[in-house]
Write a structure and sequence with these properties.
single chain, about 475 residues, alpha+beta, Arc Repressor Mutant, subunit A, 3 domains, nine-stranded mixed β-sheet, three-stranded antiparallel β-sheet, 16 helices, disordered N terminus, Aspartyl/glutamyl-tRNA(Asn/Gln) amidotransferase subunit B, Asn/Gln_amidotransferase
Length: about 475
């Protein structure tokens, strides 16, 4: 089902995202239990994270460091004097019956993220960044007979990043989420693996008449485990809510989930009023004071962020905005590209190879950039061989595949495969004369103004040289010799 042009013009989409990011610490936020993903169920637990009576939390300073780092990278105002609160609710995966979080005094507030939308830069406001402990994970049986709970994730430190309702389309939501992920990875705050739950996203979406100041009735969408699913789920909600409003109906406030099988959103539960979490200050933790020295140390440690790097690639390397966006989306890819350039490759040529051959191979093999079988230095060496004319671009691509398969460098493989081009003009001159002598019709056609006839002559020389003749040199010699015949 698709909306009509009049329907899409009638209503404006308003989206706000709540992004949960698990922090990259070795131990949990209030105890010494490990945070590694994939451990056997209920093995990374202790009396503290299981909420046993008489236990007390001890704050993990590393988690606070990463939370401050995230808030600074997201351009937030830092609350240097803040506190923790108890958020009370009852659910099987919350063993204490409450979650230690931050309510009215989060670590960071009033920040923003900038994204590029249709060639223009747009700022998405951030309401708050707060630090809290994660809950466990409930696994419901398919037949509905029982639920199993794994408490390994209980107490893993995470931050919640709440955006302003500044997002105006599903595509913008995806771009915003991709920007958050890039910043978190650049700053080594989180690995952001959505498939492992270390980056999770809930969306609030509503529609309102174009030009209206008041927001419409919103729904919350959960269960989105990829950037594509975030965009697809929101597109489904736009269509669903548009149809309801266009027919004179009212959108119901509810929580919905995205069903990947049907590619639709499905109602989970009504949400007619906000939960009363009965927040109150956490009595077992002292207030958190972030002094100037601590904050300044965090600020000084920040790397060049994705958007800054993207802009630098455009100005310093003269790359198209598209190339710069692809190369800087992932920190490891940007580092690899810069290493190729540092090894002597032309930036645009390096960009083409990294975006084409390198990422194409890695994606097909489901590998990370750090697992590339071709190092940046060896890729730069291959680019030099092509640029020098020793091999053609087509041959270069064949050599790259062989480099991935064998681990050998370009010069070695070029020699082994007998690929080195003949670029010596004196060696090619005889072939040019022979091609001219044996193909009088092509010569006549070319001299008569049919420039395509040159290709037939080049083809004869490439055949005679078994593909080793340098096409550029062959073209040059042929044109010079034929002009002399006019």
């Amino acid at each position: 089902m698709s909306t009509t042009m009049s329907e899409t013009q009638q209503f404006e989409t308003v989206v706000g995202l709540e992004v949960h990011v698990e922090l990259q610490t070795n131990s949990k936020i209030f105890c010494g239990c490990k945070t590694n993903f994939g451990a056997p169920p209920n093995t990374n637990v202790c009396p503290i994270c299981l909420g046993h009576p008489g236990t007390l939390p001890v704050l993990n300073k590393g988690a606070v460091d990463l939370a401050i780092r995230a808030a600074v990278a997201l351009n937030c105002r830092i609350n240097q004097d803040c506190k923790f609160d108890r958020k009370n609710y009852f659910y099987p995966d919350l063993p204490k019956g409450y979650q230690i979080s931050q309510f009215d005094q989060p670590i960071g507030e009033h920040g923003y993220v900038e994204i590029d939308v249709n060639g223009e830069r747009k700022r998405i406001g951030i309401v708050r960044v707060h630090l809290e402990e994660d809950a466990g994970k409930s696994m419901h049986a398919a037949d509905g007979t029982h639920t199993l709970v794994d408490y390994n994730r209980t107490g893993v430190p995470l931050i919640e990043i709440v955006s302003e309702p500044d997002i105006r389309s599903p595509e913008e939501a995806r771009l915003y989420l991709e920007a958050i992920k890039s910043i978190m990875q650049y700053c080594e705050i989180s690995d952001c693996r959505m498939e492992e739950g270390s980056l999770r996203c809930d969306a609030n979406i509503s529609l309102r008449p174009v030009g209206a100041a008041e927001f419409g009735q919103k729904t919350e969408v959960k269960n989105m485990n990829s950037f594509r699913n975030v965009q697809k789920a929101l597109e489904c909600e736009v269509e669903r809510q548009t149809a309801i409003l266009a027919s004179g109906g009212r959108v119901t406030q509810e929580t919905r989930r995205f069903d990947e099988a049907t590619q639709t959103t499905v109602s989970m539960r009504s949400k007619e009023e906000a939960h009363d979490y009965r927040y109150f200050p956490e009595p077992d933790l002292v207030r958190l004071n972030i002094d100037d020295a601590w904050l300044n140390r965090i600020r000084a440690s920040l790397p060049e962020l994705p958007l800054q790097k993207r802009d630098r690639y455009v100005t310093e390397y003269q790359l198209p905005a598209y190339d710069a966006g692809v190369l800087t989306a992932d920190h490891a890819t940007a580092a690899y590209f810069e290493a190729v350039v540092a090894a002597g490759a032309d930036p645009k040529t390096a960009s083409n190879w990294v975006m084409g051959e390198v990422l194409g191979y890695l994606n097909a093999q489901n590998l990370e950039v750090s697992q590339s079988p071709v190092t940046a230095e060896r890729l730069a060496g291959l680019i030099r061989e092509v640029a020098s004319g020793k091999i053609s671009l087509k041959q270069g691509r064949e050599v790259f595949k062989a480099m991935c398969e064998t681990g050998k460098d370009a010069p070695t493989l070029i020699a082994e495969l007998g690929m080195e081009q003949i670029s010596d003009e004196s060696a090619l001159a005889a072939m040019v004369e022979e091609a001219i002598a044996n193909n009088p019709k092509s010569v006549e056609d070319y001299l008569g103004g049919k420039e395509k006839a040159l290709g037939a002559l080049v083809g004869q020389i490439m055949k005679a040289s078994k593909g080793k003749a340098n096409p550029g040199v062959v073209n040059k010699l042929l044109v010079e010799r034929l002009k002399a015949m006019q």
